[in-house]
From TrEMBL:
It comes from the Bacteria. Residues 1-196 form the Sigma-54 factor interaction domain. SUPFAM superfamilies: Homeodomain-like, P-loop containing nucleoside triphosphate hydrolases. GO terms for biological process: regulation of DNA-templated transcription. PROSITE patterns: SIGMA54_INTERACT_3, SIGMA54_INTERACT_4. GO terms for molecular function: ATP binding; sequence-specific DNA binding. This is Sigma-54-dependent Fis family transcriptional regulator. Keywords: ATP-binding, Nucleotide-binding, Transcription, Transcription regulation. InterPro entries: AAA+_ATPase, AAA_lid_NorR, Homeodomain-like_sf, HTH_Fis, P-loop_NTPase, Sigma_54_int, Sigma_54_int_dom_CS.
Amino acid sequence: MNAARMVAATDVSVLLLGEPGSGKSSLARDIHTASPRRKDRFLEFACTGAPEGDLAACVAGMEAQRATLYLSEVSELATNDQARLLNLLARQDSAARSAQLRIIAGSTRDLNALVQEGRFRRDLYQRLCVVPLEVAPLRERVLDIPLLTEHFMVLAASRHGLDAPSLKAGAERLLRRYHWPGNLRELGNLCERLVILLPGAEIGPENLPREVRRGDVSAETAPGFELPPQGIDLNSLEAELIRQALSLAGGNKSRAARLLGLTRDTLLYRLQKHLIPG
Ligand SMILES: Nc1ncnc2c1ncn2[C@@H]1O[C@H](COP(=O)(O)OP(=O)(O)OP(=O)(O)O)[C@@H](O)[C@H]1O
């Protein structure tokens, strides 16, 4: 990721946006490792469910250090902690460069939309989002799937002292077609399971879980949808769903595309087709 390499060389706050398990936390660590702070501490703070005040306790000993702090799921930060973080950032402005904490935040939710709804402080959003980086979901990186699968299998095989299995072409095709709601974490878990259950084997489609074998996106994306007896106007329905996805995603096309299980390019094509202003 080029942009990530570029921000690593600086001290700016970075906001990583992406689905669960897409690799935000790993990317935050990579940015730290590629930065001039690589020899300093990297600390991860999980905002989800964190008791109020925990963030203050976490950064108390770090304020005078040249560390990197990664805030995962920053949208879940309690209101008072949002104010505390803002204060911390203000204090950092006047601190010596050698004592500055670098903040990287991660979010699964559309932080901009939460700001519009008044559920996240705009001033804090602006401080955190100096450089926003989108981490693509795995289904938009299908070309990477064979290499990632091999990587996860080799890793799990060495962890468990077993032989890594290999993939038959049919199995690989299914992995590329599946929509991976759990992203890299889901692929990593599947690879580990295959290593343990079928060490050294040739994996065929029959060895993959049912949801992957089905490669069936519609079952997940249209639960319970039934065609009414009088039929529907598919074209209008598609246009309406696209409008709703854009609105839910606060106008962000990559996110809207993800809500519809499409690539961004396909969404752009369909926006043109339906003459929907993007
Ligand atoms: N580039 C990569 N190559 C190989 N494995 C990766 C890569 N990025 C992430 N992973 C692995 O994928 C899994 C999920 O990554 P990570 O925890 O960074 O995702 P996340 O987006 O922060 O998840 P969450 O939103 O649930 O916190 C981890 O096991 C991680 O080691």
